[in-house]
């Protein structure tokens, strides 16, 4: 039967491993919980073989490995999980943006004048950026799943490209909203535009947190 003393050395080793890992909190917690159960099972087995509690812990922890040995494999799984989480968020936000983007303009009476060609190009580029982000996110999901199965580090190039496209998207969307207000001051009193700006800001913040998690997991 497990006692508090059985877990002391085990918990110390897990804290050392925890300090080395970066990535999605829930996945990290699950991985460490799984490791804890495996270590305590090993301690129980050695205790049943007649070893003392300290010796059982020592052997279980020695067989488990050092944080230096273990961290790369755990970090690879965390990186894959971070890429998977970022990709899922991008797909969700891209789908909403594609479906609801035009609603901020529909029915407005202040956008009658034709905007400059450069404005139209910027507006079209936002759609292209979302299309590129969606494609990269779909590829990222496949890469993350493959990395988790094979125990690799994930597809760093895909994650980097996706993060770069998202950064470009932030600039493009901010520029488009700002230019719209500059061209049509009535946009500031158009409820769909105000709601759209708020939803867009929340979406970018949500994506930014996931991108930061991925960057930390692959650093």
Helix-strand sequence: HHHHHHH
Overall 3D shape: elongated
- Enumerate how many helices there are, as a single number: 7
Terminal CA distance: 41 Å
Evaluate the radius of gyration.
25 Å
Helical proportion, percent range: over 70%
Strand % is: under 5%
Determine the mean pLDDT: 86
Secondary structural class: mainly alpha
Q: Give the low-pLDDT segments.
A: 1-6, 150-154
Query: How many strand elements?
Result: 0
Q: What is the total domain count? A: 2
Q: Largest beta sheet, briefly? A: none
Care to describe what's here?
This protein has 219 residues and is mainly α. It has two domains: 4-65; 79-218. The protein has helices at 4-20, 25-48, 53-64, 67-100, 117-150, 156-183, 191-218. α1 (4-20) runs parallel beside α3, α4 (67-100) runs antiparallel to α5 and α5 packs antiparallel against α6 (156-183). It is elongated.
Question: How is the secondary structure organized here?
Answer:
Elements: H1 4-20, H2 25-48, H3 53-64, H4 67-100, H5 117-150, H6 156-183, H7 191-218
Helix pairs in contact: 1-2, 1-3, 1-4, 2-3, 4-5, 4-7, 5-6, 6-7
Offer a concise description of the structure.
This protein is mainly alpha-helical. The protein is built from seven helices and no strands. Mean pLDDT is 86; it is low at 1-6 and 150-154.
Essential attributes:
219 residues, mainly alpha, 0% strand, disordered N terminus, 2 domains
